[in-house]
Specification:
Length: about 450
């Protein structure tokens, strides 16, 4: 490690991994409830488990982004972090608020939670991904602002690189779009319109900048390729992202009561969105080819390439499948959406977390050349189990979604099955989903185990 303050990334990384274990466990609970609707009822109803599953997902990604930024910004800026103390304080504040919120979901009925957190004073609750009590949302804003202050001061006072500027732009964008979470119009169509300003502009806009910056940092470190090459690619990817992603928001405005022109704008702009994801594949693989060093930490490069490939499949391919308005007319809100949501979130934002952790964590633990070969081999098994598991979950959901469309959406209204009758028909496919979910969890356990493999003492 070049700068001591990079150490503050450690608790962020560890906590993100703990939350990931919780997230996947709740995924498994949901998967079981799809097969047996009474599983864990009334202890953990489906809606509560779902809320915990996706809120853990968002919070763990935030922790991972913060850890990544605290690790890479000092090194890029060639100076210590502006305030390591602030970074540690915000870690504990955010962790405590996160745990309290999840416990709130699990222990108190949601309506009561809304009441005791004074949601009526500034109503923001009740929307997917944004279920947090208003007070938690305010907490998130404070934590994120203090984090951005810390990062910005470090960037501005140090050496400025394309990576840190792109990263900072992404982080500021993330904070900015989150502000729409505080706007809750009564009209459902208007509400959905602005809800996507948070969700879509995060995952298909500013978070892609953050992802591109983290990917570039790891690629520089493990391939030794010149910065100029990296910078050119990063510029290109970021430009394509913003050009397609901003207007691409229109692919959520097809049938929600918005004007017709969105059918065209959304379809055309979002068709371009897979391109930056495809460029990331070319980027990662061509950097490997041009590499000037053979870094001992091979598994970090595997994660980097894997991130690019699975993100392209999940976001690019599975996103494109349903992004044209005439197709979306039939697929909207089916299991096909869930298939895409799973592989895109996993490939882009879970795997980029593994990429930076895989590179940085050994160094934080004093293993400058990466973990031992044995440990890397075990991590590689974890990599494949998780990738195969999530591909399997996605394929199962794709079959489920197609079947659902055939039974529920395609026939004329007289002959179409109801939503619940359709889901009952598809249960055999959900058994496969659960099986692949278990493989994913086994992969995570294997991955975590690789941390505890003893490092042989290196000869001098
Ligand atoms: C890191 C891995 C995972 C990620 C990133 C992830 C992500 C997500 C996302 C984004 C949603 C919301 C989907 C939407 O609204 O369309 C969701 C819901 C869900 N997830 Fe996961 N998930 C993961 C693992 C799992 C696993 C292993 C299972 C089960 C085997 C699972 C089962 C479910 C279920 C049943 C839902 C609710 C779907 C519904 O509302 O009908 N997830 N997950
Ligand atoms: C890493 C990037 C991405 C992530 C994490 C992601 C995640 C998601 C999630 C979770 C949903 C479901 C939201 C909900 O209604 O609950 C969704 C919906 C959607 N996504 Fe993505 N997405 C990504 C990129 C893309 C791309 C590049 C495209 C198009 C090429 C795309 C097309 C769509 C469409 C059309 C929907 C709406 C589905 C419907 O109508 O039900 N996504 N995305
Ligand atoms: Fe979108």
């Amino acid at each position: 490690m070049k700068y001591n303050s990079q150490m503050v990334a450690k608790p962020y990384f560890i906590f993100a991994l703990v939350l990931l274990a919780g997230e996947i466990l709740f995924g498994l609970i949901l998967g079981l409830q799809y097969i047996n609707g009474d599983f864990l009822f009334p202890l953990i109803p489906f809606n509560v488990a779902r809320m915990v599953h996706i809120n853990l997902l968002i919070v763990l990604i935030l922790f991972a982004f913060m850890g990544a930024a605290y690790y890479l910004v000092p090194e890029e800026s060639e100076r210590e972090l502006w305030s390591p103390k602030l970074a540690i304080i915000t870690f504990w504040v955010f962790a405590a608020a996160g745990v309290a919120t999840i416990l709130g979901y699990l222990l108190v009925p949601y309506a009561t939670l809304a009441e005791i957190t004074y949601n009526n004073l500034l109503p923001t609750m009740g929307r997917e991904f944004l279920e947090q009590p208003t007070i938690t949302k305010i907490g998130i804003v404070i934590v994120v602002l203090s984090f951005i202050l810390n990062i910005a001061m470090t960037v501005l006072k140090g050496r400025r690189t394309v990576i840190t500027v792109v990263l900072l732009t992404g982080l500021v964008g993330m904070a900015f779009f989150f502000l729409f979470a505080f706007y809750l119009p009564e009209n459902l169509a208007v509400d959905k319109f602005f809800w996507w300003f948070v969700i879509h502009l995060w995952v298909e806009g500013v978070w892609e900048l953050i992802m591109g910056a983290i990917l570039s940092f790891v690629l520089i470190k493990v391939t030794g390729v010149d910065r100029e090459h990296i910078d050119k690619w990063l510029y290109l990817i970021i430009a394509m992202t913003l050009v397609s992603g901003i207007l691409g928001t229109g692919h959520h405005f097809f049938f929600i009561g918005t004007p017709d022109y969105w059918l065209w704008i959304g379809s055309i702009a979002s068709s371009v969105e897979p391109l930056p994801f495809f460029l990331m594949i070319l980027y990662a693989f061509s950097m490997e080819k041009k590499r000037r060093i053979d870094h001992e930490n091979k598994i970090a490069l595997t994660w980097a390439k894997g991130t690019a490939v699975i993100a392209f499949l999940g976001a690019g391919v599975w996103g494109f499948i349903h992004t044209l308005a005439p197709v979306n007319y039939y697929t909207h809100g089916t299991q096909l959406t869930a298939a895409h949501g799973h592989l895109a979130f996993f490939g882009a934002y879970i795997m980029i977390m593994f990429t930076i952790i895989s590179y940085a964590m050994p160094i934080i633990r004093g293993r400058l050349k990466g973990n031992s070969q044995k440990s890397q081999n075990i991590e590689r098994i974890g990599f494949w189990l998780m990738v195969i598991g999530m591909l399997g979950v996605t394929l199962a959901l794709t079959v489920a979604g197609t079947w659902q469309i055939i039974l529920q959406r395609w026939p004329d209204s007289g002959e179409a099955l109801s939503f619940m009758a359709t889901q009952a028909e598809i249960i055999p496919v959900y058994v496969f989903r659960l099986g692949f979910g278990l493989i994913t969890f086994a992969g995570l356990v294997t991955y975590l185990y690789s941390f505890f493999v003893k490092q042989p003492v290196l000869s001098k």
